[in-house]
Specification:
The protein is of the alpha/beta class and about 180 residues long. The chain has one domain (about 15-180): Glutaredoxin (3-Layer(aba) Sandwich), CATH 3.40.30. It is built from 6 helices and 8 strands. It has helices spanning about 1-10, 15-20, 75-95, 110-120, 135-140, 170-180, and strands at about 35, 50, 55-60, 65-70, 100-105, 125, 150-155, 160-165. It is globular.
Length: about 180
Amino acid sequence: MLAIGLSACAPDPVSESFLSGDNTGYVAADGAIVEITVAERGEPVDFGGVTETGDELDSADLAGQVTVVNFWYAGCAPCRVEAEDLESVWQEYEGDGVSFVGVNTRDQADTAIAFAEEYGITYPSLIDVDTAQAKLAFAEATPIAATPTTLVLDKQGRVAARIIGPIDGTSILSTLVKDALAESS
């Protein structure tokens, strides 16, 4: 029993890579989708940082909204594949009490801006490569064991769902966002 408790506290492979200085940032994913019931959700995740355009972004700015957080980097092939679908779901729910935030785990701002221009991404991304501040903020609530990983946060800022690996089209993410929107505040 003790071994189980200790293993649950172990850093995920991507965090271990960052902390060891390797910072490979990519671990193959299995495409798992995990929904977390309201009763099982932990505390709201307090995260923030500087976006690719130099703006400060803090989770307090997103209070009361459903927030989709996508961990990515430009050299990640699955991240490029899912970019259009992420933007489509963002466009579907923009203005409906939903925010999207990318967390770039590997690139500097200029690379993130070029990626956004090439793939038509209009939501901001935190540049998290040097500090892993945003990624580590989520580590207590849910390990970020693969890139890409997409999280849906409820209106209170708690992790409501996790997609490990690239989203497969827009349907599942759209449904997860719709479900989180339908929850009472």
